């Protein structure tokens, strides 16, 4: 006690180099994964459909029209050249034109993405706020009925279809009890009142100091976000429990208990502190998964986010929009994944 | 009975059959001590029985319409009520077990061996083979599964076969990772070297010695993944991309019931309970199997 390890005062050169190496490796791996993602969307868009030209010109086009479109689409060139053009387009933010909205897909996605972000963010806050304490509680009471109950509750998160829970939630809390707002982002008469600055309605309404809109938006957001949060809660609680059990089995915990440290301190100070770093990865992964899970929830709640955009595009066979949305959700997913990975490596003292 | 048990638990089994039966017996006995796992196994048993004996269990035809009896609430005649075409929901849920079982089985049959083979080859050979194969696997692994499945179905067209293909394409990478990790732990061990010295070919070592050792962790993982596969399939059905009407697929049934949810709640809710119970069954069983077959991982992840 008393003397602190030297390397916490100033990071050594070696540590810095390690961090730089980790970041460099992170960038390369992430870029490669993005190219892989683009290869998949390219494959889905250009190779699987029987004839992409036919879907543009329709089946009544003449041979000349057909050939002209085929050349205009670049389909006469070798696949690899087509792929390189595709990657170039994507990096310039060109995701093609949506047939159903008649606008560039990239523009559409930028407009709908904040709604999804808002829901997923509130969802992860709810998931972490409830999942971590539940996981710690289950670990502290390992083997008791509390532990079993939390286990079943968490497994329910793996077994309940999100769209079904959304429907039941609407019936019970909106139609039945009237506690929350219904489908949509805000009550109809508040729509378009607030100038969209960030696209996040809660933030925008606070900036505009329009609290009626704020409460209405929160009213509509709370149910889908809670349901979404429930799914991350399941994973977070399970992981917290297993990390905690690992820690609580260590000898220093026994030492602390023998010394007579209060049980809540043993759990929260000695047990919980070391698991904060691995938990960051878990939370990052759950956040990314929520962006994906929002597809189903948004459909049920008519939430004007990227998931709803994707499902509407799917039903209209609007392939550019489908692939654009897939690419954006996939990229955010990969980015959060890799970021939490690199964050873990930087924060965990053992991997320095 | 005791001689049978003794034969099963013999420490030095005299045949392969005896050894593997003995192993299964021990696993089953340990599973029986976990109440949740027993519940899971029972749910699965009921699912399989319902799928096989659907025509005898279901009181009505799953497709027979009766417009005079549409949207009836649950009663003694219709345990789960009737839908908008007067079809008995209970009968449709029972027949739906066939579709769910088909999807789950097909996905497992396609993706588990694929992942197993890729992972085992990758881990066994190492070097650039490993780097290339795991690179591709990691790309697939870091992709959101549901979105990818949606995109594949969008390109392939809706339908139950395409839903199975799309889900299988998105679920093999996790199995490849596990098989590779498992293979790495014993690729340099003596029994593999001994086989090589005896002149066994790579194919023979992989199929005869590497793959069997990966199966137990694979079984655990596949069982745990089943719930996710059922949910994805139901989600595709809900969006109208999976099984097409009039097939009694649970997700599609919920989607139809959505229009009546406020007045006739049972149409959408009943199939949902079926999905939850079956998924929970797989989760319970997978959890129990992991504790037994994979003690190092017990309680983790």
TrEMBL record, chain A:
Membrane spanning residue stretches: 21-44, 119-140, 152-177, 213-237, 277-297, 309-336
Keywords, in A-Z order: Cell membrane, Membrane, Transmembrane, Transmembrane helix, Transport
Membrane topology: Multi-pass membrane protein
Main localization of the protein described in the UniProt heading: membrane
CDD domains to which the protein is assigned, alphabetical: TM_PBP2
Keyword Protein biosynthesis: no
Subcellular location, record wording: Cell membrane
ABC transmembrane type-1 domain ranges (all copies): 113-344
Any one GO molecular function term: dipeptide transmembrane transporter activity
A Pfam family this chain is assigned to: BPD_transp_1_N
Any one Gene Ontology cellular component term annotated for this protein: plasma membrane
Top-rank lineage group of the source organism: Bacteria
PANTHER family recorded: D,D-DIPEPTIDE TRANSPORT SYSTEM PERMEASE PROTEIN DDPB-RELATED, DIPEPTIDE TRANSPORT SYSTEM PERMEASE PROTEIN DPPB-RELATED
UniProt record similarity statement: Belongs to the binding-protein-dependent transport system permease family.
This protein's name: Peptide/nickel transport system permease protein
Organism: Tritonibacter scottomollicae
Automatic annotation (TrEMBL), chain B:
Residues in ABC transmembrane type-1 domain copies: 97-286
Main location: membrane
Pfam name, any one: OppC_N
Residues annotated as transmembrane: 36-58, 99-126, 146-170, 226-245, 265-286
Localization per record: Cell membrane
Protein's membrane topology: Multi-pass membrane protein
Gene Ontology terms: cellular component: plasma membrane
InterPro entries referenced in this protein's UniProt entry, alphabetically: BP-dependent_transpt_permease (IPR050366), MetI-like (IPR000515), MetI-like_sf (IPR035906), OppC_N (IPR025966)
Keywords: Cell membrane, Membrane, Peptide transport, Protein transport, Transmembrane, Transmembrane helix, Transport
Stretches assigned to coiled coil: none
BP term (GO), one: peptide transport
Family the entry assigns: Belongs to the binding-protein-dependent transport system permease family.
The name this protein goes by in its record: Peptide/nickel transport system permease protein
Organism: Tritonibacter scottomollicae
